[in-house]
Amino acid sequence: MTPLPFDTTVLCIGGRWQRCASGATLPLINPSDGTLLAEIARGDAADVDAAVRAAQAALDGDWGRLSATERGRLLLKMSALVLARADDLARLEALDVGKPLRQGHADALALARYLEFYGGAADKVMGETIPYSAGYTALTLREPHGVTAHIVPWNYPMQIIGRSVGAALAMGNACVLKPAEEACLSALAFVRIAHEAGLPAGALNLVTGLGEDAGAALAAHPGVRHISFTGSVQVGRLIQTAAAQNVVPVTLELGGKSPQIVFADADLDAALPFLVTAGIQNAGQTCSAASRILVERSVYPQVAARMAERYRALRVGPALDDPDVGPLISARQRDVVESYLALVRDSGLPVLAQAPVMAGAPAGGCYVAPTLVGEVPADHRLAQEEVFGPLQVLIPFESDAQALAIANGTAFGLVAGVWTRDGSRALRLARRLHCGQVFINNYGAGGGVELPFGGVKHSGHGREKGFEALYGFSVLKTVAIKHD
Ligand code: NAD
């Protein structure tokens, strides 16, 4: 096993690192070579129950007594520590997720920035006074939900912890974090950092384990007052069903089939890097991946050729070599993506480019060749289903109306990009696209910690990131005072 800087077989409950109640463990696999990386604790319902109780005790104790300013300062300390350890965190993510070092480093910087943003915002969330009947003063207060559950996937653990746990702590909630069983190391490292910064015991608890086991127990726990979930549509439905039983709010972020729309008048030199990077970053395992590229017919040959050229230059290999594209998270995910590559072969659609996996990449690694497919009909499975791998489809269009219909014509609605020099067209589309974020002449806006993020339709509901998340992680209470 690879030597790691801390014990990976423990959970954090009430500030104490301990084995799970059953003592069972799960293997953590390095996706770059398929070797055993570490063992993690296989927490279950008993551990989840202890974690929720510890979180409630923190709310009733030291954590609950802190002022908003004090909570903010703690988050700022965490941010500084994360920044100082960014290289170490990037290495853990490379080993665990197969994320190329530069991308892991960017995730660590994003985590630090979320903590900085929410640390700064913690004491700036205001209620209102409301003009009401004579003899009354009416006002609103923003209060924490209480215990919040954070069920996190394996693709961007640090960023998703930053945006959900960061905002929840800023508002004074006490958190129970359940990272994905495929990738827990940065979560384990972060919870240590949080305590090193002085976070009171129980404010942030961590239970590793299987989704159907620890995750399901957390979603169903009656002590949890809010659930933040990022992952698949299938599990999102289970989470919302569990939340309904306890009548608690949920934030669901469930991925997408996001389009970038390229018009003939676009600045293609500016667009090209975004068109490709937004498809292959993190080996395409990104909820907001631009997996559909819609191109106006007159520039289609040019865009197809230039994207293909970029694909052929991609370096695909082990994460620690810092390639452009690392392995997929697991053999299971590789099988899923391979099944879509088989669909490409069977479809007879033109493969415009395929980047080869670098010579010498370990045979046990979960690699697939990034693939660009042309002339894909808008209703084809390849243009409708979330692949979650480095596979992009090009779809030609003839008119603005057709582009809009294709862009809106999937079950998802997370993000869209529009490339055009026509300002009216850009704004018209921004208003008519069915999704949570629209980027004009860019895509992703450099991470956008400050920009509210979330979906419509099967991409989910609720908003994380930005100031908006602070409203989601709090409850509005109205107080009406009768006087003379
Ligand atoms: P998943 O939805 O199964 O897992 C996400 C998280 O939910 C993990 O922490 C997991 O342990 C937990 N979980 C799983 N089953 C659960 C249950 N019954 N109750 C409570 N929690 C549970 O996602 P996955 O298996 O890791 O990936 C499958 C597909 O999901 C991917 O191919 C992709 O399409 C999608 N996905 C989307 C995102 C995103 O960012 N939106 C992230 C990861 C995966």
Structure notes:
The chain is 39% helix and 19% strand. It is an alpha/beta fold and 484 residues long. It has 2 domains: 11-254, Aldehyde Dehydrogenase, Chain A, domain 1, CATH 3.40.605; 259-448, Aldehyde Dehydrogenase, Chain A, domain 2. It has a 7-stranded mixed β-sheet, sandwiched between helices. The model has no long low-confidence stretch (mean pLDDT 98). It binds nicotinamide-adenine-dinucleotide (NAD). The site of nicotinamide-adenine-dinucleotide (NAD) has 26 residues, from helix 8 and helix 9. Nicotinamide-adenine-dinucleotide binds next to helix 8 and helix 9.
Q: What is the count of structural domains?
A: 2
What small molecules does the structure contain? nicotinamide-adenine-dinucleotide
Strand-residue fraction?
15-25%
Gap between N and C termini: 73 Å
Q: How much helicity do the residues have?
A: 25-40%
Briefly say what this structure is.
This protein is of the alpha/beta class and 484 residues long.
Q: Helix and strand layout, with pairings?
A:
Layout: E1 11-13, E2 16-18, E3 25-29, E4 36-41, H1 45-60, H2 62-65, H3 68-84, H4 86-97, H5 101-121, E5 129-130, E6 136-144, E7 147-151, H6 157-170, E8 174-178, H7 185-196, E9 204-206, H8 211-220, E10 226-230, H9 233-246, E11 250-253, E12 259-262, H10 268-280, E13 292-296, H11 300-312, H12 331-347, E14 351-354, E15 371-373, H13 381-384, E16 391-397, H14 400-408, E17 415-419, H15 423-432, E18 437-440, E19 460-461, H16 468-472, E20 474-482
Bound molecules: nicotinamide-adenine-dinucleotide.
